[in-house]
Amino acid sequence: MNLLHNAIRSSSNRLMRNVHPNQRLRSILSVSPSYRILSTESTPQTSQSSSKPLFQTPSSGLVYGKLFGITKNTLKSDVLSLLEECNLSKDDLKVDYNPSFSPTGMMVQFPSRSAYDAAIRAVSRKGRLYRLERADHASWDSIQPYGGKYVLLQGIPTNATLEEIERFLVGCEYDPSSIHLFSRQGASGPTRMALVRFLTPTAAMSATILRNRGFCFNNQISMHVLQ
Question: Within 10 Å of residue 128's Cβ, how many Cβ atoms?
Answer without folding.
Answer: 9
